[in-house]
């Protein structure tokens, strides 16, 4: 895809997962526009594109829309920009640290525990619409008391978050290094690790200071502060960020080109063989961990061991939706949904 393809981030303010992507864009010097979304469903801007996926952020590069922040970062690493990709600036062992830290942050209960520590200190804990929306996302059903679950498990969550911070304090940051992978500037290791702690530390009243503080963990707090300042400085070098309406984004993407490099359905893939999937088939795509009730429908155009790509069929304009293979599933839809006439 041409390097001048429009880049649009769909997010809402203070979304912790979005902060990973926005920090990356700033530190790589990649300019972008944004389409601000409601914190809870519905999101009509995405419905215009035929996308039912309910998690934030999403990233459009031309007519291709990428789901899930790890995949978004992987795609941005392949993008031409003023600054070289982070992977080209570190050694293989440092890349290993990045991957392990990403897994530690995303594939464990760390983020959920941070939510349990933070949420009861905010007005959202009493916002019925927000709580109902998040209960829907985690699949708890109408009888799940999300607020009660968060509040009753908060004490254990405080201990778990404290232990995670202590881990960084007494290992990677113990030798006084500025950045986790011992790089001269922030790297993916920092981006992959700092976002959830930055969200916690920057939320007024959220940090239980008798257990977690700059006095107890000076290296971690200094690292988070250092990263935040580096991002703010980098943002100043970007062009002005335009905030686009859903209609503007739809019009923009309708005129943009698509990236066809992922248009491969691997015939020997176990899922392709077991489900008899084929290119052009009408399928539905959804995440398998949370938000799984919201399935995006389209034509299958790519399926490999790393990526699933479908072309939406239900919006005002068709876009190509890319999702990582891990954590997402795709299958054929019934005849009643496959009628695209």
UniProtKB/TrEMBL annotation:
Signal peptide: none annotated. Residues 118-236 form the DUF7962 domain. Residues 10-83 form the GST N-terminal domain. It holds the Pfam family GST_N_3. This is GST N-terminal domain-containing protein. It comes from Aspergillus granulosus.
């Amino acid at each position: 895809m041409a390097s001048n393809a429009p880049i649009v981030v769909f997010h809402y303010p203070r979304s912790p997962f979005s902060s990973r992507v926005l920090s990356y864009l700033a530190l790589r010097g990649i300019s972008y526009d944004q389409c601000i979304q409601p914190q809870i469903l519905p999101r009509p801007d995405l419905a215009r594109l035929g996308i039912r996926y309910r998690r934030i952020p999403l990233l459009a590069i031309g007519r291709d829309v990428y789901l899930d922040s790890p995949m978004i970062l992987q795609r941005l690493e392949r993008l031409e920009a003023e600054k070289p990709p982070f992977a080209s600036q570190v050694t293989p062992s440092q890349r290993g640290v990045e991957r392990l830290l990403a897994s530690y942050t995303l594939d464990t209960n760390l983020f959920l525990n941070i939510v349990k520590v933070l949420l009861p200190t905010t007005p959202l804990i009493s916002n019925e619409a927000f709580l109902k929306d998040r209960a829907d996302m985690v699949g708890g059903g109408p009888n799940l008391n999300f607020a009660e679950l968060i509040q009753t498990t908060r004490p254990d969550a405080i201990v778990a978050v404290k232990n995670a911070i202590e881990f960084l304090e007494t290992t990677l940051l113990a030798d006084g290094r500025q950045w986790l992978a011992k790089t001269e500037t922030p790297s993916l290791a920092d981006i992959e690790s700092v976002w959830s702690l930055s969200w916690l530390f920057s939320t007024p009243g959220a940090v239980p200071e008798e257990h977690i503080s700059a006095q107890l963990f000076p290296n971690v707090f200094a690292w988070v502060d250092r990263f935040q300042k580096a991002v703010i400085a980098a943002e100043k070098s970007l062009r002005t960020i335009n905030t686009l309406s859903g209609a503007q984004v739809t019009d923009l993407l309708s005129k943009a080109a698509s990236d066809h490099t992922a248009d491969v359905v691997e015939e020997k893939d176990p899922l392709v063989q077991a489900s008899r999937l084929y290119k052009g088939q009408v399928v539905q795509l959804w995440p398998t961990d949370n938000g799984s009730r919201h399935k995006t429908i389209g034509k299958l155009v790519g399926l490999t061991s790393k990526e699933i790509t479908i072309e939406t069929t239900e919006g005002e304009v068709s876009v190509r939706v890319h999702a990582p293979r891990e954590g997402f599933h795709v299958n054929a839809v019934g005849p009643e949904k496959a009628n695209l006439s």
